[in-house]
């Protein structure tokens, strides 16, 4: 069954820099912005861009991710000629089967899946970015410039450039140099980790890279440099919208706070909807003595206390007299009466006891220390959790 | 899978609902921020393992069709059974105009009833807001040995409930009361019935051949006169039938009370509804909200007190809403002041407008109206 372009979504990473928050489930399934999971963004972008075959490569803690994606129906992808496919590592004929050992290796191990669709182009996405992008426009440019690979790039402040894969381009916009996390960046064009490859070209480089025992089997470190060195045409697709990598506690907190500034990314725009699988919950309730301002609240919440500058996912309860400020409350968590939660991320179904105090405001904006309570964790009544602390403990004893 | 088939009455538009039923039937009235009344019938059935449901409709059913779609949201899009829509067939000999009673509606779908494979049928009003454990009702029906079981409300069913049964010592009934008769211990029926299919077919045929149209006045009276017994099941949770504007308004306001809300909505027997993928609700810097229910997708910069807001409502700066029900995608402009207003879908209140009804007489703003 032929498709011009299919997407391969890398969703197998552990997200180890999110520590306790990803102890239960992979990063792409992390709740985000109240209603969403991170993976809703690339999946919705695919649906809105007319890409209706998406392979989701899973490895680390995939169970929640598998059930969240299900048939793909929430993203309008339960179709007969295409859809969302979960692709875990598997044993192929004549091999013992092995884990994905790098981003490139994950695609290499699924060459057969891609070949099923006889695609001209393959879009490589990752499950840890928040953005709205029209991949069809990117594909247009890829074709127009006869590129072998097109890399989406965004301008970043030069002082932060050493955190990214940095590209230099010629006057037309073709990539001349690529450096993964350079100490002294030569440009401010950062790779967004979104690639379109001409499939036959990519396949060739994936197979070659597998032969090299020194390779880390990574797109940024191996495949892109190899293509560049061999003189392939790499086009830089520049993107101007909102884009954030949410790989760390700080960036997860900051980008959730960005959702409180609708000017940054318009999620109310019905021409480019970001869709999600909704839990079955009644409307949220704001109580008689509650106060709520500058916050995002989702269905199923029950708010009796004071909530400001915060992002609340579905089914969160905030008890009488509790204060929640500059915090992210993930689905189903409970904030006990008179508890204070500030500058914190509270994981799914975590319970903060009555009168407990979690986190505290910074002395200055440069001194923000985010406190995290992992999924299913519990903070005892009247306990004090210092700013920047991380709670792992699990009340179910698992 | 239960040996039980569902039939929902969705043909009726109660005249006392006025402008609220202009574009729709009572069964598709929006309720409690994100639901339609028929969600209660469909979900109660789905939660009891009912796999086949026929929805009897007659006119103004476009919004109903739009809401139910394939029935997927209630897990009623199935390989066998599932949701069946029963609009008028225009059968030879059938009368024109609105069905005058439940039996006329059932007669119109006689062929469908005949083909029901299950041995028992549950009949549910589409305008009833109640989360009824039909599995428990069905078990009670089987163990009572009665051919028909009435689900009665523990407390008088809000909005209606004028038909009552007098229980005998076994908790069954041989006597039905209509309005104006008052007798201690009588239980008011929610008009949800579990009935043996064979009895249902007999009653439909008897009514059809005798020109009788009504379920209670004709069919049930005939059944009791012939010596039949009605099993009684008492439903303890919140029950409201929505027949008038005042029923509608007070049932929505009831949902602000946790005890009623938790009765209708619980995780064990969820009420499903048509999915709408939208963003969470945003409260602005100057927003204020007290004792209110709000669905997803709203954008609130003004003040809410005792309000029920549906999905996608926008409340602009300086607007003050008190005791209001605001339906999907309506826009309340800056400095608008509303109290006791029911705004239908897509209404727009221009900046600075003030509108005030009262608890006994809320103002209804019809669908798509721009004021």
Structure overview:
The complex is a heterodimer of chains A (398) and B (371). Chain A is an alpha/beta fold. Helices cover 18% and strands 27% of the residues of chain A. Chain A has eight helices and 31 strands. In chain A, strand 2 and strand 3 form a beta hairpin. In chain A, helix 6 packs across helix 7. The mean pLDDT of chain A is 91. With 371 residues, chain B is an alpha/beta fold. Chain B is elongated. Chain B starts with a strand and ends in a 6-residue tail after the last strand. In chain B, the strands form six sheets. Chain B has a five-stranded mixed beta barrel with strand order 8-11-9-10-12. Chain B has a five-stranded parallel β-sheet with strand order 14-17-20-23-26, with no helix packed on it. In chain B, strands 15-18-21-24-27 form a five-stranded parallel β-sheet, with no helix packed on it. At the A-B interface, strand 14, strand 15, strand 16 and strand 19 of A face helix 9, strand 14, strand 15, strand 16 and strand 19 of B.
Euclidean distance between termini CA atoms of chain B:
50 Å
| Top-tier CATH class of the largest domain in chain B | Alpha Beta
- Over the alpha carbons, how many angstroms does the gyration radius of chain A reach? 22 Å
Q: CATH superfamily of the largest domain in chain B, please?
A: Spore Coat Polysaccharide Biosynthesis Protein SpsA, Chain A
Q: Give me the count of strands of chain B.
A: 28
| SSE class of chain B | alpha/beta
CATH architecture classification name of the largest domain in chain B: Alpha-Beta Complex
Question: Rounded to an integer, what's the Rg of chain B over CA atoms?
Answer: 21 Å
Structural class of chain A: alpha/beta
Could you give a quick summary of the protein structure above?
Chain A is an alpha/beta fold and 398 residues long. Chain A has helices spanning 40-48, 63-69, 103-108, 111-116, 135-144, 199-211, 219-229, 249-258, and strands at 5-10, 31-32, 36-37, 53-57, 83-87, 121-126, 129-131, 149-155, 165-169, 175-180, 189-198, 234-238, 243-245, 284-286, 291-293, 295-297, 302-303, 306-308, 311-312, 317-318, 323-325, 328-329, 334-335, 340-342, 344-346, 351-352, 357-358, 371-373, 378-379, 384-385, 390-391. The longest helix of chain A is centred in the middle third of the chain and has 13 residues, at 199-211.
């Amino acid at each position: 069954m032929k498709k011009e372009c299919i997407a391969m979504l890398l969703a197998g990473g552990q997200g180890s820099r999110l520590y306790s928050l990803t102890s239960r489930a992979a990063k792409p399934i992390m709740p985000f912005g109240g209603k969403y999971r991170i993976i809703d963004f690339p999946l919705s972008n695919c649906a809105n861009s007319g890409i209706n075959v998406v392979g989701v490569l899973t490895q680390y803690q995939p169970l929640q991710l598998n059930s969240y994606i299900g048939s793909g129906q929430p993203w309008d992808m339960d179709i007969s000629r295409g859809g969302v496919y979960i692709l875990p590592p598997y044993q192929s004929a004549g091999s013992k089967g092995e884990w994905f050992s790098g981003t490139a290796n994950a695609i290499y191990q699924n060459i057969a899946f891609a070949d099923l669709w006889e695609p001209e182009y393959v879009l490589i996405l990752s499950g840890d970015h928040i953005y709205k992008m029209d991949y069809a426009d990117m594909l247009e440019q890829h074709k127009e410039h006869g590129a072998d690979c097109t890399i989406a790039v965004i301008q970043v402040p030069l002082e932060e450039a050493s955190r990214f894969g940095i590209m230099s381009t010629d006057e037309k916009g073709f990539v001349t140099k690529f450096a993964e996390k350079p100490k002294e960046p030569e440009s401010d064009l950062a790779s967004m980790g979104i690639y379109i490859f001409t499939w036959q070209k990519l396949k060739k480089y994936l197979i070659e890279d597998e032969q090299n025992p020194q390779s880390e089997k990574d797109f940024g470190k191996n495949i892109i440099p190899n293509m560049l060195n061999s003189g392939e045409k790499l086009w830089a697709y520049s993107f101007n919208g909102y884009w954030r990598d949410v790989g760390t506690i700080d960036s997860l907190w900051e980008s959730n706070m960005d959702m409180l500034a609708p000017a940054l990314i318009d999620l109310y725009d019905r021409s480019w909807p970001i869709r999600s699988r909704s839990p079955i919950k009644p409307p949220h309730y704001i109580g008689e003595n509650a106060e709520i301002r500058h916050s995002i609240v989702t269905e199923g919440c029950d708010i009796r206390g004071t909530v400001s500058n915060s992002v609340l996912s579905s089914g969160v309860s905030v008890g009488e007299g509790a204060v929640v400020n500059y915090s992210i409350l993930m689905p189903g968590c409970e904030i006990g009466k008179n508890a204070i939660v500030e500058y914190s991320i509270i994981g799914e179904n975590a319970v903060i006891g009555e009168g407990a105090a979690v986190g505290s405001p910074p002395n200055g904006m440069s001194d923000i220390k985010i406190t995290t309570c992992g999924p299913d964790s519990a903070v005892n009544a009247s306990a004090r959790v210092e700013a920047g602390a991380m709670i792992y403990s699990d009340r179910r004893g698992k | 899978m239960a040996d039980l088939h569902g039939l929902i009455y969705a043909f009726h538009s109660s005249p006392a609902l006025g402008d609220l039923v202009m574009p729709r039937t009572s069964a598709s009235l929006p309720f409690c921020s994100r639901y339609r009344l028929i969600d209660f019938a469909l979900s109660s059935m789905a939660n009891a393992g009912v796999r086949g449901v026929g929805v009897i409709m007659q006119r103004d059913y476009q919004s109903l069709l739009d809401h139910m779609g394939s029935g997927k949201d209630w897990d009623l899009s199935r390989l066998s059974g599932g949701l069946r829509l029963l609009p008028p067939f225009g059968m030879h000999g059938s009368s024109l105009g609105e069905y005058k009673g439940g039996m006329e509606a059932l007669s119109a779908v006689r062929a469908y009833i005949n083909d029901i494979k299950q041995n028992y049928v549950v009949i549910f009003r589409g305008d009833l807001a109640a989360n009824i454990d039909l599995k428990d009702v069905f078990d009670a029906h089987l163990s009572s040995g009665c051919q028909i079981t009435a689900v009665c409300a523990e407390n008088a069913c809000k909005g209606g409930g004028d038909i009552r049964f007098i229980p005998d010592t076994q908790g069954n009934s041989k006597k039905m009361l209509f309005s104006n008769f008052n007798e201690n211990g009588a239980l008011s029926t929610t008009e949800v019935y579990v009935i043996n299919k064979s009895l249902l077919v007999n009653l439909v045929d008897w009514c059809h051949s005798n020109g009788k149209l009504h379920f209670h006045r004709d069919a049930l009276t005939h059944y009791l006169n012939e010596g039949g017994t009605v099993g009684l099941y008492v439903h303890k949770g919140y029950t409201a039938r929505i027949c008038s504007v005042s029923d509608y308004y007070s049932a929505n306001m009831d949902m602000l009370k946790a005890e009623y809300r938790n009765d209708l909505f619980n995780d064990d027997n969820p009420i499903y509804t048509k999915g709408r993928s939208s963003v969470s609700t945003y409260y602005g810097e100057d927003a204020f909200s007290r004792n209110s229910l709000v669905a997803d997708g709203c954008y609130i910069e003004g003040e809410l007190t005792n309000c029920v807001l549906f999905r996608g409502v926008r409340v602009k700066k300086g607007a003050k809403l008190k005791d209001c029900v605001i339906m999907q995608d309506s826009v309340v402009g800056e400095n608008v002041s509303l109290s006791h207003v029911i705004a239908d879908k897509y209404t727009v209140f221009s900046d600075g407008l003030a509108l005030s009804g009262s608890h006994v007489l809320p103002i209804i703003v019809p669908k798509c109206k721009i004021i």
